[in-house]
Amino acid sequence: MGVKKICVVTGTRAEYGLLYWLLDALKSAEDFQLQLITTGMHLSPEFGLTGHAIEAQGFVVDAKVEMLLSSDTGVGTAKSIGLGIVGFADAFLRLRPDLVVVLGDRFEMLAPVQAALPAQIPVAHIHGGELSQGAIDDSIRHAITKMSHLHFVAAEPYKRRVMQMGEEASRVFNVGAPGLDHLVNGDFPDREAWEMETGFTLAQQNFLVTYHPPTISESGVGGLGSLLMALEQFDNTRIIFTKANADAGGRKINKIVAEFVSGRSDKCVLFDNLGSRLYLGLLRHVDLVVGNSSSGLIEAPFFAVPTVNIGHRQDGRLKAASVFDCDEDVDMIVDTIKTALQSKPAVNDSPYGQGNSAQKILQILRNTDFSTLINKKFHDLEWA
Length: 384
Fold this sequence. Notes:
2 domains; six-stranded parallel beta sheet; 14 helices; Rossmann fold; alpha/beta; single chain
């Protein structure tokens, strides 16, 4: 079959963290040539220029596709996708990959998939079949599924859902969540080293907070105000915020959080970008994850850290017993935080696998005849 060129696309710090061990495995494999494209938030000074960290970790970036407009609106998001399609069309023409790999449900990933479709380049999609009913991500994820040719899902219910969408069973593989590979294989700083590297001192009780735009919300900031009011009621607690993503409303959220933190610098800090190593290192030292990020559902349970999941952004996802859902109401958030802090989660109580996804994906790619992927059929289920 010869050496196959596998082109992996990444647009955010969080997504790169999930892909790291797959990238590392492809880079080391003699039967594959890794091609890496960075885009979106990786190339934006506003979001920390995280693409530099990828190169600093020894990966060669084969193309950089600028697509992210400095806009906080749906119109800006739509125009960013359009710019991305043009950029990826040119990149794919130059790189000529045998397979494009994308992860998740963010709007940036619509661009490479749409560019690959008319170029007849097969696409492998990671984390398909999931639900996040409080976000437009749901529609994006399912659209990517229908434009993809291989599916690497994180759990059996997601495998069944992808098949329900007409994908052939022979193309759908439950490999678990790639993000857990990092928790098994990563080398993370201890508490003292983390404090030294970041310049922020932790306390006896610490919360890690990430709040992304709900994306199906008129205001764009959802229940952020209620969350901040609730957090103020916890004295003697250090609160570590990480910035929201680049969805419509994300910049407004970041501005509000920055103003909140600026008046409480003795107990709060806001990081543009911690990177996977420092973020996951911190996760091991906090008492609680708060917000609406998927990391609270996937990575936090692995370390037995409870999560308070606010609002509806993650509705429909599988959740461990350590995840506590609550509405965007101040009193409910406070009560749920108190309940979560008193819980005693089990270690590695995750429904998303055991942290060996990268090697599973690599082996599946080795056993796949790429020449047969483009000819894709719709598989009808037999209804009783």
